[in-house]
Amino acid sequence: MSEVVFGEEIRRLRLAKGWSQERLAEGICSPSTLSRIENGCQVPSRRVFRLLMEHLEGPGIFSYAYFLGTEESKREELQKDLLEAMENWEVDRVKDLLWELEQVMDYDNPKLFQFFEMSKQVCFQMCGAQPEGYAMKCFQILQIGRPNWNVGGDSEWKAMPVGMRYGRCDMVKSDYVEFWVLNNLAVGFMWQEEYEQAYSILAFLYGQLGDEEILRKRNWKMRGILSGNMALCLLHMNRPQDAREYLRRACIQVRREGGISLFIHLLHIKMDVSVALEDNESYYREQLLLSTLEQMLPQRYQKELFWSNKQWERKEFLIL
Question: Alpha-carbon distance 243 to 235, whole Å?
């Protein structure tokens, strides 16, 4: 069924009760989000849909899967598979999944379109594309869901004052996809050696880590990845002591939750920070730990270690 059916049913039940959008949305989502759902511009999360239906005391026969239908379910599965393939650096699989997603694309769904375009850009980087222009591409992908950001071509982008270019990023608090795109935008700025701009975005994202509505179950991994990018950015800004603090937080989280390739990635950054601080004792301790991990890892982790080292060629974390 089409996505607008979500909104049609919610609006029908709301009007039957004589409620305003503000009353129904209270404690669940913003009225503007509910308006987008009812107009078919946004698909509600399972949590939001469940809360809305509970509040409306709906008949209960309309499950989330009923509205999504088989095609939308396939899109959801392809998105999950794509993220996994990109995280594992499986280039050929990423290409195949992008082709499959393109066959069932719904270009009227801005979130899906953003995800698709961002995945393509990451794939290009995995295939060895040059990083020039990556930040501009990320900003254009943000505009898919923010059409009022009418930034023109590359020359206009570069001519805009820094405050106008980056000060508006605090508007982006809506969902996981934009969170992911903003992280990659910050990486693009680091590739352009615009570290102050990258830092402002990463700091903003880090401040949202407590928002479970945005981050869902990937909170711990996002914290590790953002901390790694923040540490790299601070290292480039000649602030190695601050970088070490972010790495300390990230390593605590990763040790608690698991993730060997992410831990190894962070360990590489810690070694660079130790060099910058002229802390030879820490450097050799981290080097020994890395060497020990490489020797003791079970066979099933060797592939993960291989891709972690490959990703380290660029250092920054693209995937969230």
Answer: 6
Residues 6 or more apart whose Cβ sits within 8 Å of residue 44:
6, 29, 37, 52
Nearest to 320 by CA among 244, 229, 218, 188: 218
User: Are 271 and 315 within 8 A, CB to CB?
Assistant: no
The per-residue pLDDT string of the chain (320 residues; one tens digit each, 9 = 90 and over) reads: 444 466 777 888 888 888 998 888 888 888 888 888 888 767 776 677 778 888 887 655 456 655 655 567 778 888 888 888 887 778 888 999 899 888 878 777 888 899 999 999 999 988 888 888 898 899 888 888 766 554 444 444 444 434 334 444 444 444 678 888 889 999 999 999 999 989 988 888 887 776 555 555 456 677 788 888 999 999 999 999 999 998 988 888 777 766 777 788 888 889 999 999 999 999 999 889 888 877 776 665 666 566 555 555 556 777 66
Give the separation between CA 230 and CA 198, rounded to whole angstroms: 9
Q: What is the 3-state secondary structure of the chain?
A: CCCHHHHHHHHHHHHHHCCCHHHHHCCCCCHHHHHHHHCCCCCCCHHHHHHHHHHHCCCCCCCHHHHHHHHHHHHHHHHHHHHHHHHCCCHHHHHHHHHHHHHCCCCCCHHHHHHHHHHHHHHHHHCCCCCCCHHHHHHHHHHHHCCCCCCCCHHHHHHCCHHHHHHHHHHCCCCHHHHHHHHHHHHHHHHCCCHHHHHHHHHHHHCCCCCHHHHHHHHHHHHHHHHHHHHHHHHHCCCHHHHHHHHHHHHHHHHHHCCHHHHHHHHHHHHHHHHHCCCHHHHHHHHHHHHHHHHHCCHHHHHHHHHHHHHCCCCCCCCC
Contacts of 312 (CB under 8 A, 6+ apart): 265, 268
